[in-house]
Amino acid sequence: MALFSRRLPTAFVLFGLLFALMLPASVHASSQTALVQLVEYIGADYVNAVQDGEIISQEEYDEMSEFSRLLHEGIGELEAVDGRELLLEQARQLQAAVTEKAPGTRIKSLAQAIRGTLVEVYGIPVLPQSAPDLKNAPALYQTHCAACHGAEGRGDGPASGTLEPAPTNFQELERYAGRSLLGLFTTITGGVDGTGMAAFDNTLSEKERWSLAFYVGSLAVTPDMVTRGRQALETMPGLKTQLPLEAVIAKAPEDVRDDINEAAFDAVGYLRTQPEALFSQNRFIELSEARLAEADLAYREGRLKDARTAALSAYLDGFELIEQQLAAVDADMMRETERHFMAVREAIERERSADEVSDRITEARSHLRAAANRLDGDSLGAAATFSASFFILFREGLEALLIVAALLTFTRKAHATTARRQIHGGWILALIAGVATWYVASQLITLSGATRELTEGVAGLTAAFILFYVGFWMHSNSQNQRWLSHLKGKVDNALDGGTGWALAVVSFISVYREMFETILFYQALWSQVGATAAPYLFYGMFTAVLALVVVCVLIFRLGMRLPLGVFFKATSLVLLVLSIILLGKGIAALQEAGWLNARYLPLPSVEWLGFFPTVQGAVAQAIAVVLAVVLWVYGRQQAARAAR
């Protein structure tokens, strides 16, 4: 590598629609990250073109001139948002400085400023989703990079003599100091036009590209730097908070040194060589803190949309992924912290004063720090791991199990073989679709927390409407003695084709909406579990499966013993209640994703009822309850008239 049947089943159609919702957030290599790569290249390589105001390499200088022009043009083509004009002015100054053959320190300073503004204005960087694998990175490097960059990364590989400009010497400390991991990653991903650096976006997976970025980005780190950096992180109060994952990825080491101090420069070197230290539960807390700080700044500057986005991301991409772990240790603290995130979003939505928003953000950050202390360290203990693992699977699985088990019991009592097969097909397809969606989201695209909530919200509302229909359909038919006699006579077509497919769709959605999120929660939990506690994650998972099996058996046994008419009435009531719960959860998810406004009520959340204290959710659920009661009473009156 140089620098680097005749009817398509409804469940299939629905899965396609749900998956399509995720695609807008799946940009693989955005123009913004390409510009980060470009500006870093200028900052790092200008020294090879000009020294003491004199051109020492005309080819390098021509390249710097071209790249500074392309940078200015590229920024001009970005979406017009607050801050772009500042970027354009910075890029103009950089282009003029190159033309004037300014000192390298001036070019570096301008490049650092542009990189920082790009990160702040356009929401960069792209972040790795798990700790890069540095064990396999040397083999990847030797296969794809050593021919140009040399076996030790000194830019002296067998092919280096034929390349212009020469391959990067990754052992050079000055070059190391000026390159961020994001810049290295984007270079590996997209290559560099006009150079020998090829693009590896189609050759290497995203995880492999991050592993290479960390590897080559740490070759210049000395053992002394590692020792000093580790000691600084352990002894300097607040340094970990100042170096969240995003800062380590997006900033060059010299930027960190300028912003903080020399010890932070060494700490970045240590974290590049030990990336697993970035992927503890503190990663999610630090990400939340960073996003809250962004929301505070954006709101004070009048960028309301950016403030909303950052506040949502603070919860969805950070704190939400450790809620179960914190709940296993201190459930009250989890709920209290969640309420403070809600208070931040409410203040922004209602456009309160900047001071009030800042006060609420300060309170949320204070509770985040308390949560970090409560979680105590870089990994969870055995008891917390077991508890979190159990409740993730049991909580996410129980709702889907209740729906699917009730439908299967109903079709079994009705001897409706075809409908039962459709229901089985729905939940099996959902398991496959959930795993496939997780794989695509983790390996091929970047899935934001907002997109995840949007997917869950659409699925929840769809399931709520269909469940409401099925519940009312079952209730109305429970009064129809002629129809019941068909079922008792084992007539499979007593369930018409439309209703049978509706049951299959409910089966699919109920499992799919829980499946994908469950995998994400376990992925987050796994990154926070130490080697000693790791087996307890599987113990918790196994215990949850056993508990769900027990619930399933009880539903089947109880359902099969009830008289058919009584079973229909009971099941229809359960499905109507579940539809109202899913309605509340679906609306809450769309509010979390920013697709629906939220007006919060001073009431506690009751998650098992799907009640989240917003006016929109409460009104929707109240309307659904009234409608269910009206239809229920109307059905009974119709049955009473028919019996006369």
Helix-strand string: HHEEHHHHHHHHHHHHHHHHHHHHHHHHHH
Oligomeric organization of the protein chains: single chain
Q: Characterize the biggest β-sheet.
A: 2 strands, antiparallel
Task: Provide the spatial order of strands within the biggest beta sheet.
Answer: 1-2
Number of strands: 2
Poorly predicted spans = 1-30, 486-494
How much beta, percentage-wise?
under 5%
How many distinct domains? 4
Share of helix, binned: over 70%
- The rounded distance between the terminal residues' Cα atoms is 85 Å
Kindly provide the radius of gyration, computed on alpha-carbon positions and rounded to a whole number of angstroms: 29 Å
Task: Please give a quick description of this structure.
The chain is built from 28 helices and 2 strands. The protein has 644 residues and is mainly α. The N terminus is likely disordered.
Explain what you see.
- With 644 residues, the chain is mainly α.
- It has four domains: 96 residues; 154 residues, Cytochrome Bc1 Complex, Chain D, domain 2; 95 residues, Four Helix Bundle (Hemerythrin (Met), subunit A) (Up-down Bundle); 262 residues.
- Helices cover 71% and strands 1% of the residues.
- A two-stranded antiparallel sheet has the order 1-2.
- A hairpin with a 2-residue loop joins strand 1 and strand 2.
- The longest helix has 32 residues.
- The radius of gyration is 29 Å and the shape is elongated.
- The N and C termini lie far apart (85 Å).
